[in-house]
Design goal:
Order of helices and strands: EHEHEEEHEHEHEEE
Number of helices: 5
Helix content: 10-25%
Mean pLDDT: 94
Distance between the termini: 29 Å
Number of strands: 10
Strand content: 25-35%
Radius of gyration: 18 Å
Shape: globular
Length: about 230
C-alpha cells in the first residue's frame, strides 16, 4: 500500500515556477491557501525547500566514528500530520522535530554518516531509508504508509522532486494554481523536471477533475492521472 499522492504547484501559463519577475506582492497566499484546502496527512518537499524551515546552524562536529545501524527510526511524536523532506545526503539540520504543527520525517540514502543519524535521533527527528545510493520512491511511499499511517500525501515540489515522482509513475493527482503571467525565461525551472531529451518514457496524461477561478484572474485546476493511457 502507498499513500494517494497529490502534486500541488503554482505555475505560470508557460509552465514556469514562481520567480521575482512575476511581480506579485503576496505570492505565498496563491500557493498556500489552496494547498490548505487539500486534505492530506503529510506534505513533502526537497532538501533545498526544507532548508528554509530547518536550522540555519550546523551541529557541533563529533570526535571519532559514530556507528549507528542504517535502519529506519520512528521517533516519538504527538503530531497528527507530517513534514517529509527528500534529503538523500543528509544536509538538513534541526533544532526541533517540528515544522509548524507537523512532525519531521527525513528521507535518506545509506550514504549518510552515523554522526548525522545521531544528530537526528538527538533532535527526535524520524527518518527512513529509501536505498543505498539512490532513492526508490516507491519504497519510500510504502514506508510512509506503513510506519506513519500516511494515506494522503501532498507534494509541494520543486520541479526536480515533482519530476522524479512523475517519472516513477507515483502521482495520482495534480493540483495547479495557474497564475496569469507568462515568464518567458529560457532555462527557468518548470513545474516538472523529469529528464533531458526523449527516452522511452511516455508523457503523463490527465483527466480534468475540477477548475475554479480564484483571486480574480487565477485558475485552480485539479487533474487526476489517467492510468495505462499513452494516447487518446
Amino acid at each position: 500500500m502507498k499513500p494517494y499522492v497529490i502534486c500541488h504547484m503554482l505555475g505560470s501559463v508557460d509552465g514556469r515556477i514562481k520567480q521575482d519577475i512575476w511581480g506579485f506582492k503576496d505570492h505565498h497566499k496563491y500557493f498556500e491557501e489552496p494547498a490548505s484546502k487539500i486534505k492530506a496527512d503529510a506534505w513533502l518537499v526537497g532538501r533545498i525547500t526544507m532548508q528554509e524551515f530547518s536550522s540555519k546552524k550546523a551541529p557541533a562536529k563529533r570526535r571519532g566514528r559514530v556507528n549507528i545501524p542504517k535502519e529506519d527510526f520512528v521517533a516519538e511524536y504527538k503530531a497528527k500530520t507530517f513534514a517529509v523532506v527528500i534529503d538523500p545526503s543528509g544536509k538538513c539540520h534541526w533544532d526541533t522535530n517540528m515544522v509548524s504543527t507537523e512532525h519531521v520525517i527525513e528521507v535518506l540514502t545509506e550514504q549518510v554518516s552515523g554522526a548525522y543519524l545521531a544528530h537526528l535521533q538527538e533532535q527526535n527527528v524520524s527518518y527512513i531509508f529509501g536505498g543505498e545510493t539512490e532513492l526508490d520512491l516507491k519504497l519510500v511511499l510504502k514506508k510512509l504508509y506503513k510506519l506513519f499511517g500516511i494515506k494522503r500525501l501532498r507534494i509541494d515540489g520543486g520541479g526536480h522532486v515533482n519530476g522524479s515522482f512523475l517519472k516513477a509513475g507515483l502521482i495520482d493527482e495534480f493540483s495547479l494554481v495557474l497564475a496569469p503571467v507568462a515568464d518567458g525565461t529560457i532555462g527557468a525551472p518548470t513545474v516538472f523536471e523529469a529528464e533531458e531529451g526523449y527516452g522511452k518514457r511516455k508523457a503523463t496524461q490527465f483527466t480534468l477533475k475540477s477548475v475554479k477561478k480564484i483571486y480574480n484572474d487565477f485558475l485552480w485546476i485539479r487533474y487526476e492521472v489517467l492510468r495505462g493511457k499513452s494516447g487518446r
